[in-house]
Amino acid sequence: EAEVAQSPRYKITEKSQAVAFWCDPISGHATLYWYRQILGQGPELLVQFQDESVVDDSQLPKDRFSAERLKGVDSTLKIQPAELGDSAMYLCASSLWSRQETQYFGPGTRLLVL
Amino acid sequence: QKEVEQDPGPLSVPEGAIVSLNCTYSNSAFQYFMWYRQYSRKGPELLMYTYSSGNKEDGRFTAQVDKSSKYISLFIRDSQPSDSATYLCATRTSGTYKYIFGTGTRLKVLA
Question: How is B38-66 classified by DSSP, letter by letter?
């Protein structure tokens, strides 16, 4: 069964450093989402892509976060500089454009900022 | 007030019990409702998807939506230890695929 791949699974960094997370969606899924899930809370959408275009980045802290999906396939989420409050699970999900109600999540990247 | 409220638990039940998980929401424009299951250190997995009011059944799982009281429920029959996970409710309006998630309820099914 096809799955959403994410790497790394775990990342420990010091504040003010740069970090990057990678996501490879299920083949053929045009829509890609990045979520942030703080411990004990539900996922919060950061950015949504349709192919290589950003559909919604209203919740993305653009002063330090950036996301790209240059060829409309895999995607990178970057934080620079990282802050203590960025410690969370970063989840990537993908879906068919015509079936966005069914989002498939990857295993996530757990980030700890010291 | 959060748009979606969910009791974080933990909820502990014996194996074979019927489990009731609930969420309330504040925005009457929400029309689509989802339940996700999330095992520890894993991403959420879609369990149930419903539109508007009513019931939907899938195996041991039943999702129920009461739009008049802005209340959504997930029932698990004959609960198993493998059902132990965090259950997240989520909802959205008809004009967007931006989901609003609850905080999740941790469920423990004891063997």
Answer: E-TTS--EEEEEEESSEEEEETTEEEEEE
Structural domain spans, chain A: 5-113
Residue closest to A85 by CA, chosen among A112, A55, A49, A47: A112
What CATH fold (topology level) applies to the domain A5-113? Immunoglobulin-like (2.60.40)
Segment B73-100, tens digit of pLDDT: 999 999 999 999 999 999 988 877 788 9
Domains annotated for chain B, with CATH where assigned, are: 4-110 (2.60.40.10)
DSSP state of B82: G
Q: How many residues does chain B have?
A: 111
* Residues belonging to chain A with any Cβ–Cβ distance to chain B shorter than 8 Å: 4, 31, 40-45, 48, 56, 91, 93, 95, 100-108, 110
Non-local (6+) Cβ contacts of A53 within 8 A are: none
Peptide bond into B44 cis (omega under 30): no
Q: Does B49 touch chain A (CB under 8 A)?
A: yes
